[in-house]
C-alpha cells in the first residue's frame, strides 16, 4: 500500500486524512526531523505532502533532505518549491484525488538512473552477480533462486580491499534472463558506501555522467 506522509497543517485535517483513506492510501502524519523522514521513505512507495504555508512545512522544504524526497507541496510555487505544487484553494477531496492520481501512475514519482556494474552479491551461502544498480534497486544476471520476502545480500565493492555493503532486498520482478530486486542499505554506513558506489559508476557512464541521481524528484517519461 502506498503511504502519504503529511507535514504541517495538512496533517491536522481530519477531512483530508479520511479522503486519502477512502482512496486506499495509508496516511502517516509526520512531525520529526527531515533526515528521519528521508530514512522512512527510502524504499517505500508513496509521497510526502507538505503545507508550504506554515513553519514546519517551510522548514522541511528548505532542508537538504527535500531534494531527495518525493514531495508535493500545498501552496508551493512551481520552479521554486521542491517537488510538485498543489493549489491551496482545493478542498480535501480534491487534494486527495490529485495525490491518489499521482500514486496510480505507472511511472515512479522519481527517476533513478540505472548504470551497469557487475559485482558479486552474496546471499547466504550462495553467490550471484549484479548486472546494473540504481539508488533503490539491483538487477541480477540469470535467474538465481532467492529467499521469499526480505533477505540480506552482501554487495562486494570494487577495490583491492574487500569491503561489502549489506543490502536488505526483496525480489520484485523476474524475466527469463534477469531478476530485479528492490533494496535498501541496512545501516547508515551501508547507505554512504552505496551512494558513493553509485556516484562512481555514474561518473564512468557515457550516458549518465552528468545525471543527478537525487533529482529531479518528479520527472515525466
Give a short summary of the structure.
Helix 3 (55-62) links the parallel strand 3 and strand 4 (71-74). This protein is of the alpha/beta class.
Structural notes for this entry:
This protein is 24% helix and 30% strand. The chain has five helices and twelve strands. The strands form two sheets. The protein has a six-stranded antiparallel barrel with strand order 7-8-9-12-11-10. It has a five-stranded parallel β-sheet with strand order 2-1-3-4-5, sandwiched between helices. Helix 3 links the parallel strand 3 (46-51) and strand 4 (71-74). The model is unreliable at 106-111 and 216-221 (pLDDT under 50).
Measured on Cα atoms, how large is the radius of gyration? 19 Å
In sequence order, what are the helices and strands, one letter per element?
Answer: EHEHEHEEHEEEEEEEH
Helix content: 10-25%
What is the residue-averaged pLDDT?
82
**Whole-Å distance between the termini?**
23 Å
The low-pLDDT segments are 106-111, 216-221
Largest beta-sheet details: 6 strands, antiparallel, barrel
Shape: elongated
Strand content: 25-35%
Number of helices: 5
Number of DSSP-assigned strands: 12
Structural class: alpha/beta
Strand order of the largest sheet: 7-8-9-12-11-10
